[in-house]
Design goal:
single chain, 489 residues, alpha/beta, Rossmann fold, seven-stranded mixed beta sheet, four-stranded parallel beta sheet, 15 helices, globular
């Protein structure tokens, strides 16, 4: 595979000089956004796909996966380790062989533009939809046979845009998101007549779309659930950013509260750390995991500075919402509605147990709110299962392991473009061969508008030059199989 630096979303495989006949949007019933029309019909644009040249015998083509960052590698890990089916018969019975053995993969982490969950907060949903289609176009440039939208926010916000584009492209390429699969996994924790609550922890943008709650309601009705079903949504502001060491939310070199911090804080208007709940949060204060001023019991400033502390804050916030709900039903399932959250599954699981056993003034305030058999639902596992069934039924599984290929790409700011504003570098770089490229400032990232032809980012292969040491460590411990497939780390 060409290892040269790729300017964002240039489509060398498809670029051509012909113009495809334009179809009416009403024929399919979904209005195309401008970049999709460009990809279909404007041969003068770098985004033009020339889809008429797409290969028709696509079983041997790679599977494409994209996410707003490296979190989507948890979805890839679920795919490459899946063993639920018999590879010879296709029946749902494990055979000791990975179900996707023989498949090739292309993965894109749009790291420079992450987190996607904040675009709606800044009234930039139209720009986010454009970014999501660009992600799909990059994968189409590698002639993938299917696209897995690993990002929950991208699924909720842009999956219809991708599907409309693919249908009009007449390439036969399909797109799969993570929300439908995650909801099915959550509903499977309840019997059809049982009452209970399903918690959804996701980015602010994902929660704002109501994609999970709407799908839970629709599927529960379609599948015949008759019990009382409550959905508790928690927009986990800053959690994904903390996992990926975004400097607005994590600063490993900080020893005091920061003025440029954007996460939950003692006096935050929407995401306040409540002093009366400090004993239940059980934050880790060691190693500057919490930045504070004042003394214990009388803090004047408190800021989260450790990803597990973000997990703890948002999980307790969700349970407190359930506690305040009239006639609360016990939590049966917690959907980890962002690909970054499974990296801290152990913290979330541990805290569920802690809260069930938490005692205050001789009472257990959370015990009846959390079912003893409550489970964490990772949509990645259920997405991998749906992907297998999709490819199996379309006879598009590849069993030729002699030609397996892996491409891992990440977007970085195009610092050569005039006016690009970058953050200073934070974090432990001790395990890298060079400092990773800087990141867009928050105001620059979320201040851009759709419709521009400026190439704000470049797409390059994964390497130690663009991955900090903490991220590489996380890969090795949390996604070992996928990590072993990534060259240059």
């Amino acid at each position: 595979m060409n290892r040269a630096v790729l300017i964002l979303f240039a489509l060398p495989v498809f670029f051509g000089c012909c113009r495809q006949p334009e179809k009416t949007d009403k024929a399919i019933g979904f209005e195309l956004i401008p970049i999709s029309k460009t990809a279909l019909y404007d041969s003068t644009s770098v985004f033009f796909g020339n889809f008429g040249r797409y290969p028709r015998d696509a079983a041997a083509a790679p599977i494409g996966i994209f996410d707003s960052g490296t979190g989507g590698l948890t979805v890839m890990e679920a795919i490459v380790t899946l063993d639920l089916f018999n590879n010879a018969t296709g029946k749902e019975e494990p055979d000791g062989i990975c179900d996707f053995a023989g498949e090739s993969f292309v993965y894109l982490a749009d790291q420079a533009n992450m987190p996607y969950g904040n675009y709606s907060t800044e009234n930039k949903t139209d720009y986010l939809r454009e970014l999501i289609v660009q992600d799909a176009l990059f994968l189409m440039g590698h002639q993938v046979k299917t696209i897995v939208v690993a990002c929950n926010t991208a699924t909720a916000t842009g999956l219809p845009d991708i599907q409309a584009l693919l249908e009009r492209s007449q390439t036969g390429v399909t797109a799969t998101g993570v929300i439908h699969a995650g909801v099915k996994g959550a509903l499977e924790t309840l019997s059809k007549t049982e009452s209970g609550s399903i918690g959804v922890m996701a980015t602010v943008g994902t929660i704002r779309t109501m994609g999970y709650e709407r799908t839970i309601r629709e599927l529960a009705k379609a599948m015949g659930y008759t019990g009382t079903l409550q959905v508790i949504n928690q927009p986990a502001m800053g959690f994904a950013e903390a996992v990926d060491e975004e400097p607005d939310f994590i600063a490993r070199d900080a020893t005091q509260p920061r003025d440029n911090y954007r996460g939950p804080a003692l006096h935050h208007p929407d995401y306040s750390i409540h002093p009366k709940l400090l004993d239940a949060y059980r934050f880790d204060f060691t190693g500057n995991g919490m930045l504070c001023t004042g003394a214990a019991g009388d803090y004047t400033r408190l800021q989260l500075n450790f990803a597990p502390n973000y997990a703890r804050y948002h999980l307790l916030s969700l349970i407190e919402k359930l506690r305040a709900t009239p006639d609360p039903q016990p939590l049966k399932a917690l959907i980890m509605g962002c690909t970054h959250y499974p990296y801290h599954r152990e913290t979330l699981q541990q805290m569920l147990c802690e809260l069930r056993n938490y005692q205050q003034d001789g009472c257990f305030p959370y015990r009846d709110l959390i079912a003893a058999d409550a489970v964490l639902v990772d949509p990645a596992v259920h997405t991998a299962r749906e992907l297998y069934i999709l490819l199996r039924d379309r006879k598009m599984l590849n069993r030729n392991s002699s030609d397996m290929r892996y491409g891992f790409y990440i977007s970085i700011p195009n610092s050569d473009l005039p006016g690009v504003a970058l953050e200073s570098i934070h974090g432990d770089l001790s395990e890298t061969t060079a400092a990773p490229p800087g990141r867009f400032t928050y105001d620059f990232k979320y201040g851009r508008n759709p419709g521009t032809s400026l190439e704000y980012v470049r797409i390059v292969p994964f390497s130690s030059d663009n991955m900090d040491g903490e991220t590489q460590k996380r890969f090795r411990t949390s996604i070992p199989v996928t990590c072993s497939l990534i060259p240059n780390l």
